[in-house]
Amino acid sequence: MRPFLLLSSRAEDEAADAEYAAFRRFTRLSADRLHRIRLEAGPLPALDLDGYAGVFLGGGPFNSSDPAAEKSAVQVRVEREVGELLDELVERDQPFFGACYGIGTLGTHQGGVVDRTYAEPVSAVEVTLTPAGRDDPLLAGIPDRFQAFAGHKEACRELPPGAVLLASSATCPVQMFKVRQNLYATQFHPELDVAGIVQRVRIYQHAGYFAPSETDAVIGRLTPAAVTAPGRLLANFVARYG
């Protein structure tokens, strides 16, 4: 069976390794079936996409809507490389699942509007499936309403032309969409459970999502959350395309 590929852009080893472990846990893929490339570490190597069943893009520190003058050389390179990869993935309609940063990249690539209108604090949000979401095979077994962890400085304000809205929330209208038949993006993090979000809060407490002095309070609000459904999306993706 062909492996899947996870593209990561987290510079912190602890965060990058935890993200990879989380994707492996929820996809139930072994290390030899989930390859990883850390985009921030160096140029994206040439990829034989025929060798992969699907591509995941994890979250990270970059915001697609950042002013060009404020983007680092690494961010500019990563955005260019991901954009070129999406050119091919969209053309082929090859299975793709982007989490959080995936909304910014796929949304921008396909002509949507991504800005800071619907930023959400680090929290557990209630996500609601649209009628299209209830009928989509990737959301099979997912309740019409479920809790998911989110925390982002930008979001998709206007869907790309032709994209299908699959899930929404009261504070962020675009929580999940699909392009063509096989390319998906979520604003929430399907790879995070309580332990995962708490670890990430500690790692990124100085990243501007909240005041560092509020770290313990943020963790206190997260730990009672009943977040169980989102990880099924990753398992469904692998079951469908693997």
Automatic annotation (TrEMBL):
Q: Please, which domain of life does this record's source organism belong to?
A: Bacteria
Sequence ranges assigned to domain Glutamine amidotransferase in this UniProt record: 49-192
Q: Which InterPro entries does this one have?
A: ChyE-like, Class_I_gatase-like, GATASE
Listed PROSITE patterns: GATASE_TYPE_1
Q: Which cellular component terms (GO) are annotated to the entry?
A: cytosol
Q: What Pfam family is a match for this entry?
A: GATase
Name of the protein in question:
Putative GMP synthase family protein (Glutamine-hydrolyzing)
Question: From what organism does this protein derive?
Answer: Blastococcus saxobsidens (strain DD2)
